[in-house]
């Protein structure tokens, strides 16, 4: 009888642990505004966005009033955070500007004109009641005379909650709004930084080199 009771308790505990309703998953889903901006990026390959460790983990994280970054194993992102951030940003830029911005790997036969790299330094629901997204982005244009961009971003979105009391749903909503603002900034190539012109065409491939005729041999 005792063994039966122990087995019943074990099975009940196991069922409780496997109850999917106790685990909440949150989406990154920026709102669409209907705004339309000029296409300044053309065809662009977006490299996988670089995120801090706490932002690339599967758990939704936030900062408590003691300054610690905390998370809960029952409150998760619905998708891999790096993949979701990258895919969402590419779609948001494309929707805003009409540019063809696609996350790597590039799927089209015609190669992209530009590359876009985003390096996030902070992506955090802060203890002061704001969500902050900071970092730098780089647009590479290998064509002769192309404009290369190296610019920074510092986006702050109020969460509308008491300091240190952010909920995972609030974090997901404000992060989505921050990504939408970042998409707009990149679409207009805005933010502090520099624009650097490509001074020469890309180096020739080995096939191009060996396809050229050899110079004539001079008289000896």
Automatic annotation (TrEMBL):
Ranges where the record places region Disordered: 190-220
Signal peptide from the UniProt entry: none
Domain of life, per the record? Bacteria
The record's section on Pfam families has: ABC_trans_aux (PF03886)
- Which InterPro entries does the annotation name? ABC_trans_aux
| Residues annotated as domain ABC-type transport auxiliary lipoprotein component | 33-187
Name under which the protein is recorded: ABC-type transport auxiliary lipoprotein component domain-containing protein
Q: Source species, please?
A: Paracoccus aestuariivivens
Its lineage reads:
Bacteria, Pseudomonadati, Pseudomonadota, Alphaproteobacteria, Rhodobacterales
